[in-house]
């Protein structure tokens, strides 16, 4: 199999075949848009795999593929330590995948903080929700400064055999006349020179603002809200070694330790709030924080008046059927970061892709590779669909601004956390991505809806309460069904959307 146990001689043979196949179109080729022909830049590298972007997933893939004997070229615009405000919490399921990939060293020596569960605040109440034990052991996530983690992964990539790291920006993916991606054209950051990389497979991993995605698909991310970030210093968190979720009005606030002295706070800002009002909005939101976090947030605002923000986006996973290329990570699929699932999904995607490529005898067999990539889109649903639906459904409930019945779900959700060990552990297994079965998610979601209905109807089921209960059920269904439709993973996705129209009909009848 290409890459598995490959010798340098085998790698040279694959390179020779690649050059021979691409020779007829290397001199002058149509651009990715198929418009006029342009002079081709010189071929500077030939590899089994070309990876665009050396963030969490790109660097991890480069390291793992290189260790397995593939030749890899990875392009990254800036190899210095990134300074980002997201991608700082890795759920237990993600930490497990990281170690299965052999990259556990990337979280060592970076002052990472163990995450043992969450603390949830709702009004004047709070509840701590630990991750449920597995085989007698308590699962653990980890939070850290994003840049330190990425640099650990990049170190592993650079040290892996067969990996070439380039500081460059991608200009286009170059294709043959049949539309098969043969590699990328790039501009070097060091001297501005242009070059071409030939590769059997090109992987786009260049993040939420992906340039490579635009070359592969017309699907665009939709902005759901904005996170404004604060870095709190020397704050004693209410729940040690925990993430914190404040169910504030109108949308949630997150906080978790990222270092022995630092904690990250992310304040969700609705799209309706103008950028010039962010500062005023955040100061108003501090009134809903626990005292220790409020003091830390105000101190952070005083110390760093320049506000740092990051758009939160939703990008459904739409398969790109293009030979020779695939998009992964935030380039391919995004959900609201409320649950901190992004890196876990990306790493699990990467692990699955590596396993599937290992089943291909030779990457030069593009049809065999394409067959495995096709199965990737189906198999990834086992770990990705639950993460996608959970994140967006929880955000819809916790940021219920346009639906008068979803606040009933908020109340019920908080009470559901406290109800018993089964409800608590089931919820936290999903949140920690320890249990990724879609039907388990759907059952818990509608159990919360049922709990909200029971609380609404009892003890006296007046007609108005029964009507409210009906609207709660329909509102819950309206939240989760479109998300399940996009994933197509449970029987609920098979129900026609026209059934949701029954709510208006019954409402008219009851008037």
TrEMBL record:
Residues 199-461 form the Squalene epoxidase domain. GO terms for molecular function: flavin adenine dinucleotide binding; squalene monooxygenase activity. The keyword Oxidoreductase applies. It catalyses: squalene + reduced [NADPH--hemoprotein reductase] + O2 = (S)-2,3-epoxysqualene + oxidized [NADPH--hemoprotein reductase] + H2O + H(+). GO terms for cellular component: endoplasmic reticulum; membrane. The keyword DNA repair does not apply. Pfam families: SE. Its main location: membrane. SUPFAM superfamilies: FAD/NAD(P)-binding domain. Keywords: FAD, Flavoprotein, Membrane, Oxidoreductase. GO terms for biological process: sterol biosynthetic process. It is found in: Membrane. Its EC number is 1.14.14.17. Its cofactor is FAD. Transmembrane segments: none annotated. PANTHER family: SQUALENE MONOOXYGENASE. Catalyzes the stereospecific oxidation of squalene to (S)-2,3-epoxysqualene, and is considered to be a rate-limiting enzyme in steroid biosynthesis. Belongs to the squalene monooxygenase family. This is Squalene monooxygenase. It comes from Thecamonas trahens ATCC 50062.
